[in-house]
Design goal:
Subunit structure: Homodimer.
Distance between the termini: 40 Å
Strand order of the largest sheet: 2-8-7-6-5-3-4
Number of domains: 2
Helix content: 40-55%
Organism: Shewanella aestuarii
Largest sheet: 7 strands, mixed
Radius of gyration: 22 Å
Family: Belongs to the class-II pyridoxal-phosphate-dependent aminotransferase family. BioF subfamily.
Number of strands: 11
Pfam family, one: Aminotran_1_2
Bound molecules: pyridoxal-5'-phosphate
CATH superfamily of the largest domain: Type I PLP-dependent aspartate aminotransferase-like (Major domain)
Structural class: alpha/beta
CATH architecture of the largest domain: 3-Layer(aba) Sandwich
Protein name: 8-amino-7-oxononanoate synthase
Low-confidence stretches: none
Order of helices and strands: HEHHHEHEHEHEHEEEHHHHEHEEH
Mean pLDDT: 94
Length: 383
Amino acid sequence: MAHPLTEKITQQLTQQQASGLLRQRKLLGSGTDNHPVNFDFSHNDYLGLASSTELAQALYQGALTYGVGSKASPLVSGYGEAHQLLEQKLCAITGHQACMLFCSGFSANSTLMKTLFDSTDVVIADKLVHASIIDGLVDSGAKLARYLHNDIDSAERLLAKHPNNVLITESVFSMDGDSAPINALSALCQQYNSWLIVDDAHGFGVVDPHGSAAITAKQVDIQVVTFGKALGCQGAAILASQDVIDFLVANARHYIYSTALSPANAYLAYAAIELIQKSPHLPSQLNDNITLFRTLASQAGINLTASQTAIQPIIIGDNALTMMVAESLAQKGFKVGAIRSPTVPVGSARLRITLNAKHTSLQINQLVTQLALLLIDQPIENP
Ligand SMILES: Cc1ncc(COP(=O)(O)O)c(C=O)c1O
């Protein structure tokens, strides 16, 4: 008799395959049918730091000075000088009192939620917050009250119903690229004696004109930043008051029972922040590229959303059609994200195009030409 798990796995894989929702990995550097990827508009390395020689050298230097592995969890002996250096830097640029590091943004978010809340809590969150927040809240047993995406009135109605509470949002939304009205949410939270928690994964490091973070302790009570996007490396941090961090360090099971971020990686993230601070041309090049893409795409008649950030979605609607457009682009050497439900609501499947500071005007021009061909001039249709 087949093992019940084998049956379950086979059944689910078959269903996902049949509905066109089977997610599969592709080896980096190869597009559909092994077409080479010449132009990559799919990743979150917004400033192009992931392949920088300076950061490769920093990683080497960090490994030599502090070691490649942390060897233990932070509460045993895995918390060292490199971690402290990075935490102090993060506190200095955001104004928070204290900080703790994680190996990924997913673990930082989910740990934060399941350590702070329990089944007696009602937590207010934007309808589109990241899966890591939702998973952590589900694990915590808290009730989730969701307000309409970026809608201040809807958020206020929930805060009025549940004052003295917590409101959670992303700064820049990962699949839509639009920015939350942080100042308005912050004022609202103060009015209702509530904390504001912001997942700043896609904002941190990008909107950083003078070396300090765009979102700081002045506006938010707890801030999660990640190092795998604009910083081009890996890991994450929770920033908050000393009391909150002391509480999390003492109670967050994921932090207590897991090997700490490697010191080489902590030093690397520190070096990435320093590099961004001395390279104001990078965010400015990124902004020029965003403007160029938006200008060319609207001139070509392509429907854009209101996003002004590096994340530029083009909503196609249908899952299969979205995959077909992305595959046609891949055949021409352009890699873009193809995002389907359930990651985004049904009927809003999209191309997720991400710009970075290192794209050339020619590459952006060529991408828009291909998009116009596939979406406007000779639109692909579902068979
Ligand atoms: C909004 C948001 N938060 C958190 C994460 C998780 O961060 P990490 O990739 O470091 O796990 C992501 C990752 O894609 C994200 O988009």
